Prior knowledge:
eight-stranded mixed β-sheet; 50% strand
Amino acid sequence: MRVTAERFAALLVALPIALLAGSGVAGAAVPAPFAALINQLVQVIDVDDREDHADISVQFACTVNYLGNTPQSRGTGTTITLRLGPDCGSLLNSVPPELPLIGGGGQLVTGARVDSLLPGQASLELTWSRELSFVMAPTANGQGLRVRLLGTGKRATGYVTEVDAPEGYAVNLDSSLDKFDPAAMQAAATALSTQVYVSETDVEDKHWFRLRAGPFKTRAEAERVLRVAQPNYPRAWLAINDEASQVMAVDRAGVASVAALGPTDAPLPDAERSRILRDARAALAKRQYADSVALLTRLLRQPEYPGRAEVQELIGLVRERAGDLAHAKAEYQEYLRRYPNGPAAGRVRDRLTLLATAAAATQSAGAFGGASAPSRWSIAGSSALTYLYGQDQISSGGTTTSSTSLNAALIYGDLLVRERGTRYDFTARVDAGYTANLVSNTGGSQDRTTAAYVELTDRQLGLTGRAGRQSLATVGAIGLFDGLYVGYQLSPKVSLSVAGGLPAYSSYSAVSGRQEFGTVSAEFGPYRQAWIFDGYLFDEVSSGATDRRALGLQVRYSRPGHSAVFLTDYDIALAQLNSVTLIGNVSIPGHWVLGFDLDHRHSPLLLLSNALIGQSAPDLATLQTEFTPSQIRQLALDRTSTSDSLTLSASRPIGQRWQILADISALELGGTPASGGVEATPATGWDRNASIQISGSSLLQASDLHFFGLRYDSSPSSRSITASWDARFVLAGAWRLGPRFSVEQVDDPELGGTQRLFLPEVRGDWTGRHSVFELVGGYQIQQQQSQAGLGASTTQDARHLYASVAYRLRF
């Protein structure tokens, strides 16, 4: 969306006011009863859009275990399956449907939806504007998730085709809602004796694929091909410069690849070639582009040898970093010509997409650096309105009571203002909202601020600075904070960052000086196109005392069909291993995907301020007047238990319409000793559960979806079994209908009897290109039968009616 000068001037006036208001408007933390009523699993979804990738940070209200996602690494979106941790409270019974607002990326990440099919389990569905590759990993504290979208480019849409980009004229041969077969492209190119490409476009909420001949520099040439094409393509028409910013293709610009000249040098020993490649990489890291190109050119003039494909890709990257985009495109094209199925072919296509999009959106500066392209201001944003209502009725001993348990409206909005210059990028963003609670006895209304910051990026130096309220889910345990972040791209494979400020653990939190933190982090990779390493040093101070000082490491491995993430966090100040996690997925022949999640951690997160648990002192400063530093340290260790969990999962498609997902897991929460006047807590013992989910499509009508679930849970104190059915039916237009029914039986001797829960629910939603409208209604029935003694029993019947209406708009 382009912004006029008048509108932008108005935004410049309004934005600082919003930033100032957002930094202090949040008030006190949300009251606990009200927070339980709102019951949102996802607190924040934030998108950080960069030159060639985008990072999605998801922050949850409690601990979750990642079970898996489908599709695994490429698609127009993914559905992530999560196991809820023991601190999720009432969410363990049922996660209400959510439409979380997406901050900062409404044009790229187009949708988010939270749902639950089985107790203790939830799914997060994320969708993006086009097919992309992606990788994901949880955060060290278990309350976040990171997803990186690869090859996003600047405002790129569509997909790569290895042809020249339109230069003004093309012939539209045919249009279709389905992708064109490569054979159709080849047949058209042969019949017309010219280049043919496929592009994508959206017209009236429909996504079209276009088969086109061209590009042509003159209208006369295009009209000649049109006349030749019309006998075989009667719907063909002349297209005049209508895809400059949409077609994902490349412009050769009359530049030949160095490799295209052919090898002219005598073969070198392998050791000498390895030395030259090391020197070329070192020159690139120092931004000595001319030296790097000269060294790589020597290698490209060698006869074919193992490792030459890596050199071909690298010289394209060096040319791109140096700003020589025409040669960069030619080198990337040569890679695809020589190695169309090479290990980096997908990545090279993504780089070509980025270069094509940037070239289409920027005016030429001429051979000697003439007038540069004008600055481009743009705005993007989203807004959401949700209304929630709940009515409770409890019948016991012949007495019935009714009450309104939930009556609230949630209003959220996100505004992103961006200027992309020739060297500098400026971004300002506000993500805030208001929750109006209409039930007076469950807490007051609250406002919230998820983001309120300004950011400046120097692309030439690889330096980014950001100040204000922001999210930092990648380092330690910090989610939201008020402060400063600085990132530096030291080399293509090494990035450094520092951050510091005041933690704001909830979007309802005001700016508070009670705690301060600082952190330094580094990311290395990818190495061998598979390994990425992240490390950090984190320090947090509360009331003048070190609350947390930790070292962390994350290792990510990703290959087609195989992925693994290892995370560990060690508290230096308390000399304790805070957490260690190993997560992975492995594809095996027969279309099975096996997953595992092994986790050991302190629960809650190990902090010195945990010593306040069970004490009357409001903060560490007061506690220091009652106990010595060593006693406070021991109290913190005593109040922090440990948890161990294991999850194994397996999934596979069955035929064309069915998918099966099964998992087993076990969780144990350790006990804590008595100390400081606080009683001991026993260990919970192992809680073991198993579940199976079978999904099918097109069973009763075309494109419908059905999910059948069964879950069994066994702990030392109770047993439960749950069966459920969830469906999605396509109605007229963009409407969908989703009926759902689940039944659960819980046998808990500590409660003295058996509980049965019945939950019928129906959901209807309408999804447009830029908006979503959703209606949800459900009626939960809970019947509990308890033994009252001497063989007598009592029955209690609890019913909960709930409904919600939600509307979300992107612009």
